What does this fold into?
Amino acid sequence: MTLSFRFGLVAFVGLSLSVASTFAAEPTVNAQRKLSMEKVAYKGWANNLKISNGEAELIVTLDIGPRVISYRLNDGENVFKNYAEQMGRTGESEWQIRGGHRVWAGPEDKTRTYALDNSPVTSREIAPGVIRFAPGPDTEYSMQRELDLALAPTGSKVKATHRITNIGKEPIELCVWGISVMAPGGTEIIPLPPKAPHPGSPKNARSAADFAPNQLFSIWSYLDFSDTRWHWGSKYITLKQDSKKSPTKLGIAHRLGKIGYLNNGTLFVSSFDYIEGKTYPDAGVNFETFTNEDMLEIESLGPVLTLKPGETAEHVEHWELFGGIGEVKDEAEIDAKIGPKLK
It folds into this structure.
């Protein structure tokens, strides 16, 4: 996670964010980064930016969002969920989930969190291979959201930088929240910290930490520990997406900062930081996961901050895809096939 404060950014309103996309309909190639970028149609939207390096590709909506609506290996399937009935639409009066990856402002509430993101988005290259996507300013809640994406020149690695700027005249409190809506049918893998023996007595303790907890969970009222989608293992917690099951949700202060989602042989890995000493939402968690009958969400959260006018908060995730993983039947296979990719 990268956290920064920048001043004098109120000038964004009505200026740089009104600039049209810098990408033409014909494909362009960034020779330095070996990336191709082109406007493409996608599931009813005429304007989307496809970023590809020949091994992996991203598609980001420009008619609404921004949403990273597709992320896949060139020979693989989109790892993100797309809600078919919401594709290609714009201008709805209520917020739409749509699928893909999005930027939200937390902690969650019924108003600001669900601010509409169904109008056009600008895109521009702010550095070689780094594309900034920005919707119009949200004057109702004094926020400017942005998403910076950088696909590596080879392989599938992506750096996703989520940014929220206070464009109002008063301080605002928020956390930056990145949410990936994963395609149905997969299994989420959540690594746990290494086990350590009980010290037995104070004289055997290496430090005071031997007597302190090393994990913090937030439990939602609709999480049932007998739910068979969950497996509470020794090294990993796993959660299966099931089209026949109702919602469940868990939050963790996840200091390890790597989460996997295995679906049809492809592993999606999301990495993010935990900053010691910072205040996190929902009783102190930087990672949350939610699933229902449609999808599973991998959510990372930055610290709760008070932004003065003109200040910007950033929160970074890193993504990677691994193909050809195959099935995993138990924790031993998870540890052998997936464990090294989550370290």
Q: What stands out?
A: The chain has one domain: 9-197+212-342. The longest helix spans residues 331-337. The radius of gyration is 20 Å. DSSP finds two helices and 22 strands in the chain.
